[in-house]
Amino acid sequence: MHAPPTGPPAFHGTPRPSRRGLAATLAATLAATLLAFVPSGPAHADPIEGGGDLGPNVIVFDPSTPDIQGKLDEVFKQQESAQFGSGRYQFLFKPGTYNGLNAQLGFYTSVSGLGLSPDDVNINGDVTVDAGWFNGNATQNFWRSAENLSLNPVNGTNRWAVSQAAPFRRMHVKGGLNLAPDGYGWASGGYIADSKIDGSVGPYSQQQWYTRDSSVGGWQNAVWNMTFSGVEGAPAQSFPDPPYTTLETTPTSREKPFLYLDGADYKVFVPEKRTNARGVTWDSGAPAGSSIDLDQFYVVKPGATAGTINAALDQGLNLLFTPGVYHLDGTIEVDRPDTVVLGLGLATIIPDNGVTAMKVADVDGVKLAGFLIDAGPVNSETLLEVGPEGSSADHAANPTTVQDVFIRIGGAGPGKATTSMVINSDDTIVDHTWVWRADHGDGVGWETNRADFGVRVNGDDVLATGLFVEHFNKYDVEWYGERGRTIFFQNEKAYDAPNQAAIQNGDTKGYAAYRVDDSVEQHEGWGMGSYCYYNVDPTIRQHNGFAAPVKPGVRFHHLLVVSLGGQGQYERVINDIGEPTSGTSTIPSVVVQFP
Fold first, then answer.
1. Residue 252 buriedness (CB in 10 A; 0-12 / 13-18 / 19+)
2. pLDDT higher than threshold 90 for residue 23
């Protein structure tokens, strides 16, 4: 905006103008003066400042903080069983040593260290997830995380009894790790990445697990599907007995961005992409990557509008969502290459009025990480779009990553979405997602939380590492892009189908959990399972869990389907191949290689 004039306009020269001439001159001068206040383009608000405090639900500790255990216990008491509550919390530990702690994590609670290495924060104690709130059953221990810490467990083994949407990233456990609840009740997890477990990992009752680019001292057992890529110390490949799928390396990976302290200044570290990755990124000195100062982030707090968020993005800022629930009446538009959108404490975005929650342009290197998108009551055609329809740019050198981004339809209340996640940009990496049409909670019913499709991939050369997609009314995953790859897939078909007719797909009984389109020439998958539990009508028959064209370039390794307690059955595993499930014994039917 131009500065206003400092005084009255000056008139010079002779002869003195006439009254009419003076009036005209004054009018012209006044008009020019007024025009000086009118912007030549669209109006611009004041610049949005980056940085600032992280809000009341980010709780920061240093070794001298009094009663750390008391604060941890206070939040756990509130969050232990608050599966669909609105509380969101992030604990941050400054570098140093902490003694005698047990950080029990409930729903929507994240704990992280603020060092550049997990060994910068040493906890002589535990970060614990158990299932006392649910009578020893851990199959609903969702939406929590532990990152960037080292642990010396009190009894030598840390308990992390989780299921979906509970990442264990960049952790160093100086002992063993137990993935089962006390009493060895069921669990249905889970995901580990960039972590080092010095001792042995005991899955015990865990039905499936994916571990990526890590190091383990041993692995004790498997139930249905244990998949490893780039893991030092992983068991040898032996599917189906025991059901280990082991890849020496991960084809492409880039670890999740994380908040850390550089002296007294908060920064976000963005790790570099790795190819043919194996082992952790942090045990040989400083990790490879770059840092972004916090003042380059708009620190988003509850109450922020889509307009303000988009203005911050247009201004060149990244986004750091503080813990909370965000109702937005417009789409978040991420248009700039290398933008980071990072959530703390499972920050939750709810699109109102049927809009798409977030769209990413077909640009290089966007990083989406650490947040939950919850469908609103008005149907959204999509909830997250990476790249617009028809995207074709090559991003192989600098792909977009989607990490610990979870999507939920129903459960916390009525929600609807036609397709939850659409990946149009080539070379995108989807690294640990849980896309879930709720089977319990509020707003749940075959039509109440209608959601036909979970994940649709149109882009070429897309890689999914840790793909959890469950309960959609039709296809859970559809893949149209070329040269797609999935390492580990976990699925349950929709429990609540009212009858056989409700899932009839033309002449086919049911919709496959994972379908590769007939047009695709090349595709590959490893360690992939689909389960059915048609408890409304246990007589339902699902023809197969997987469907794909029979072509030399379309290959699958280690597929399984399971009928949970005989509640519905599969007739085949993939296409018309594989033995049917039968009875109530919950024994998988497997196909080791396809074709």
1. buried
2. no
What confidence tens digit (pLDDT) does each residue in 229-257 have? 999 999 999 999 999 999 999 999 999 99
Asked if 61 and 92 count as a contact pair (C-beta separation under 8 A), the reply is yes
Contact 105, 132 (CB under 8 A): no
Q: In this structure, are residues 367 and 401 in contact, taking their beta carbons and an 8 Å threshold? A: yes
What is the sign of the dihedral through the CA atoms of 284, 288, 293 and 297? negative
Q: What DSSP element (H or E) covers 298?
A: strand 297-300
Cα torsion 202, 92, 383, 548: sign:
negative
What single string gives the DSSP state of each residue in 161-229? ---SS--EES-EESSEEE-S-TT---B---EEES-EEEEEEE-TTBSEEEEES-EEEEE---SSEEEEE
Give the mean pLDDT of 85-97: 98
- Facing residues of 569 across strands? 541
At 490-511, the pLDDT tens digits run: 999 999 999 999 999 999 999 9
Residue 113 contacts residue 121 (beta carbons within 8 Å): yes
Strands 589-594 and 554-563, how do they pair? antiparallel
Q: How many other CB atoms are there within 10 angstroms of residue 536's CB atom? A: 16
Please enumerate in sequence order all residues whose Cβ is within 8 A of that of 476, keeping only pairs 6 or more positions apart, or say none.
435, 453, 454, 455, 469, 470, 491, 493, 511, 513, 514
The whole-angstrom separation of Cα 573 and Cα 561 is: 6
Mean pLDDT of 177-200: 97
At 45 the pLDDT is: 64
The residue behind tokens 């707003």 is 443
Give bridge partners of residue 543 from the DSSP assignment.
Answer: none
Beta bridge partners of 250: 277
Q: How confident is the model at residue 331 (pLDDT cuts 50, 70, 90)?
A: very high
C-beta neighbour count of 355 within 10 angstroms: 20
Supply the Cα-derived Rg of the chain in whole angstroms. 27
Token digits for 307?
Answer: 């307009």
Please state the separation of Cα 264 from the chain's center in Å.
29
pTM of this structure: 0.92
Query: Is 571 a residue of the active site?
Result: no
* Of the candidates 24, 54, 547, 53, the residue with the CA atom closest to the CA atom of residue 322: 54
Average confidence score pLDDT of the chain: 93
b/e for 502-520, b at 16 or more Cβ within 10 A?
bbeeeeebbbbbbbbeeeb
Q: Is residue 258 classed as helix, strand or coil in its secondary structure?
A: strand
- Quote the CA–CA distance of 114 and 258 in Å, as a whole number: 9
The answer to whether the CB of 182 falls within 8 A of the CB of 130 is yes
- Considering 492, 521, 524, 579, which one is annotated as catalytic? 492
**Residue 61: its pLDDT value, please?**
98
Strands (E), 352-483: 358-360, 367-374, 380-386, 401-409, 417-423, 429-437, 453-457, 463-470, 477-479
Tokens for 153, please give them: 């467990």
Identify the band that residue 46 occupies on the pLDDT scale cut at 50, 70 and 90.
Answer: confident
Q: What is the 3-state secondary structure (H, E, C) of 315-363?
A: CCCEEEECCCEEEECCCEEECCCCCEEEEEEEEEEEECCCCCCEEECCC
